Amino acid sequence: MDAQIDERAERDAIIAALLPNVPFDGWSAAALRAAARQQGIDEADVATLFPRGPIDAVVWFSHWADRLTMETLAAQPVEGLRLSERVALGVRTRLALLAPHREAVRRAATLLSLPIHAPLGLRLLYDTVDALWYAAGDAATDFSFYTKRGLLAAVYAATTFYWLDDRSEDGSATEAFLNRRLAEAMALPRLRARAQRAFDALPNPFRLWRMGRPRF
Hints:
Number of helices: 11
Radius of gyration: 23 Å
């Protein structure tokens, strides 16, 4: 267990040292080794800590951001907030934590958009939205569990790409964008349920056909 904790601390330290240089060196093996040297970690250990090199560093960066978001949200008073407001707080919190590393996020997104890494990118997105729903207090275990995560994945991805190019003061444009997308996403299940109730209230055409059918 102690070894696992030590490895997590070493990975965190390398990512912390790497992030400021990603805008210049990208998510590269050379940058990863340089970050390890900066933290006094033997370069030979990099292959153990990040077996697949830069792509594993991107994975750890995403999970690091998830952990930090969860820790930050755990200290927030959210008792009086609606579920949708808690979700919005989670998204805002994660983006605020990533704000100093905006270019690293952009380059990570570019790397994950490559066909070879696309499945991994989807998995990381799922991990993030799952953590956000968990932090918001969602306890669903039925089919809505997957519906909610699918809806939030679309909202989070769109908001992140909008945020990457947002130059508004205090991120107000991203805030407005997020609120619109969340309102639309939260409305979808209600609209679907309303449409289902309306459909169920319609006369059954087969029953009417049988009632009007001549008897022989």
